[in-house]
Amino acid sequence: MIAIESSKSSPLIFRPAFKLGALAICALMLISVLLWIPGLLSSFLLAIIFVFILSPAVDYIERHGIARSQAILVVLLCLLTVAILLGMLLSNLVLGEYEDFASRIDFYSSMINDEITRRIGEMESRFGLDRYDFGQRLLAMAQNKIREALLFTGATFGTVLTWMVIVPLALFFFLLDGYRIKRALIGFLPNRYFEMSLNIHQKINQIVGSFIRAKLTESLVVGLCSLTGFFIVGLIFQPLNYFMFLAIVVGLFNIIPYLGPAIGAIPVLLVATVQYVLLPQFPEFAGAVAPSWAPVLAIVCVLGFSQLVDNVYLIPVLLGRSVNVHPLIVLLAVILGAKMLGIIGMIISIPLASIIQTLIFEVSDGIRHLRH
Question: CB–CB of 220/255 below 8 Å?
Fold first, then answer.
């Protein structure tokens, strides 16, 4: 009776229901603002992803007696130095290949388009489907989407500019004041949920942090396997055009589960088919190399071997069961992420799905234990 009277007499702002309601309203307002400004949501999500990647290094330096702000600056300067050195090392090769590939993408697409149109016309005439124009409609529907995937046009100039400004600032303050933000959020929760919130925080840090670092390692190994395979194919046959840029594309898209390897293979097969099969059919290219599907099949074997290494060795060793998300949820998360934020959304969809799944499971388990 006394406890009931004391809870009723306590100020409204100290009651658990008010705290939870205020936290929910603040979260909804924050999400609304992030969705309202283009590029802002993806910027904050990218900053959070980098927090999971860089936090162990910052914590390690801080444990050796250096202030946290200085440790953050050291890590960020090291990251910037590595990025500049890699940019200087690869700019002449990779960026040159990308610019050349981007300038010739319409040519490659038209070559494939003409060949597919010819094949579709033959099939439609053979089966009497030419009056429905089925093949042309399907080809036109897929062409723009494929071109966007090849050139990464899902990110506009304004979005990229927002990333360059917001991500470093948000990353610095998240690394510096992350503990204060976590304590403030936990302070909004009633005392009986304190242990449950700590468990959720620890599991999210463990699962998402290990997943992101493992995915980056996996992407690097797959990209190196592809690069080595493309180089060997070039030694046996004619060197594959843009092979360094294409290997980077394969590695980057491998971060995206299920759909990523297929999307990353599209530009590789496009370039290989045009270079080895279609171009040599023209008289001006006939003297260079004879048309052959053998190099294309070799490229397919390289892509298949990279995925074999990934699925048989890298995923079990690096990831294990750290992110135990159902494949159907993974697929839906990837599609939803692509719809909302393009390629960046596809990449960060699985960490977000694992965070949401961890929240749901831990909250339900915590409430069940509290009832008992």
Answer: no
